[in-house]
Amino acid sequence: MTLALHGGDPVRTASWPIWPQPAPEAGRQLADVLASGRWSISGPYRGADTRERTFARRFAEYNGTGHCVPAASGTAALMIALEACGIGAGDEVIVPGISWVATASTVLAVNAVPVFAEVDPDTLCLDPAAAEAAITPATRAIIVVHLYSALADMDALRALARRHDLTLIEDAAQAHGAVHRGAKAGTMGRAGAFSMHHTKVLTCGEGGAAITADPQLALRMAELRADGRHQPEQPPPLNEMELVTTGTVMGSNRALSEFHAALLIAQLGRLDQQNEQRAVQAAALEKSLADLGFATQRTSEGTERRTYFGFVIRLPEEFDGIDSAAAAAAVSAELSLPVKPVYPAIPASPLYRPDSRRRFDLGDRHRGRIDRARHRLPVSERAAARHLTFHHSALLGERSDVDDIAAALGKLRDHRADLG
Ligand SMILES: *Cc1c(COP(=O)(O)O)cnc(C)c1O
């Protein structure tokens, strides 16, 4: 047998489930918005709650918290959460060494300084001891990320934030519906931010939301995402503009459209069932892979429900010296499924380039603090180099899909020498 990458027969050529999968009622919901005369929260009252407001209520309920502020993207949600918490110019925010670039670029976007701390090599989430070591007198906040299929060590991180009087913000962009000791991801800090981007487990193409238990914080986030305006408790007369102007805070327009909100209402109804299906498939795959000598991503103690945004496989030590990108390409070729190395450490990522934008050029002192070359993250870099991942949609098909994935990994292990 030869690797498919080198011209051999692949393990599988059949197609995989596509993503996103529209809920059956999504088309009708979108058509209703089209005809409604209200395509944005910044529009006239038409005699009913906006879809945006309805989704906010349902998503807050889903998470067991008081308030939800929808936003145009996960990036926008992180930015309104940071700014509503009072994070700004020159403040240091501790972020994990591995995440999607937006976890750190949003810190820069509010003129604060991301300080990278190492991740735990088993969960790929922020290491509490490393976070503690990164605290300085300028530290104001910690952003914790629940990455791929893990929940971060929230017991230790919550205690750490409390001990040092730091704001804890959860980047739950990949963890809609995950549960830690009875609490949903996104409800364990001052605010939680979600992405509803195309790839995410709950999606409307592009969208986001920030949640919090604190009504004052929610109001500030709402104004920050609608140019300083918010929705009133009581609606105005029919066909008059609904948002009220207060002038309390200068915001930006980062609002979610009514089309996106309508889609999210429909898709939210399928989230639990899809999360469950992915978890069942993932458990079967974990077992098969363990038999083949492959470890998979661990999650923190206290995790009661994992959600799988990505399934993560560790390359065993016998792969040392083999480029993870080559290993990923070999598995992809066996399965006709995109398999990739996990995100690189953020400071080493080609997407993280603060020096490429004039807006971050705030003087010599600031330039030195945000210089990505000053961050050394050997643990995160090593972890990034030995884990592969594939998208959660591959867990939404048949049990035999999991067997194919395991077979491809087994073949990779047997032929690793061919990868040089
Ligand atoms: C997707 C993602 C974001 C950003 O969300 P967008 O909707 O793409 O702006 C932030 N953090 C993490 C961990 C993500 O996965």
Automatic annotation (TrEMBL):
<keyword id="KW-0032">Aminotransferase</keyword>
<keyword id="KW-0663">Pyridoxal phosphate</keyword>
<comment type="similarity">
    <text>Belongs to the DegT/DnrJ/EryC1 family. L-glutamine:2-deoxy-scyllo-inosose/scyllo-inosose aminotransferase subfamily.</text>
</comment>
<dbReference type="InterPro" id="IPR015424">
    <property type="entry name" value="PyrdxlP-dep_Trfase"/>
</dbReference>
<keyword id="KW-0808">Transferase</keyword>
<dbReference type="Pfam" id="PF01041">
    <property type="entry name" value="DegT_DnrJ_EryC1"/>
</dbReference>
<dbReference type="InterPro" id="IPR015421">
    <property type="entry name" value="PyrdxlP-dep_Trfase_major"/>
</dbReference>
<dbReference type="InterPro" id="IPR000653">
    <property type="entry name" value="DegT/StrS_aminotransferase"/>
</dbReference>
<dbReference type="InterPro" id="IPR015422">
    <property type="entry name" value="PyrdxlP-dep_Trfase_small"/>
</dbReference>
<dbReference type="GO" id="GO:0008483">
    <property type="term" value="F:transaminase activity"/>
</dbReference>
<protein>
    <submittedName>
        <fullName>Aminotransferase class I/II-fold pyridoxal phosphate-dependent enzyme</fullName>
    </submittedName>
</protein>
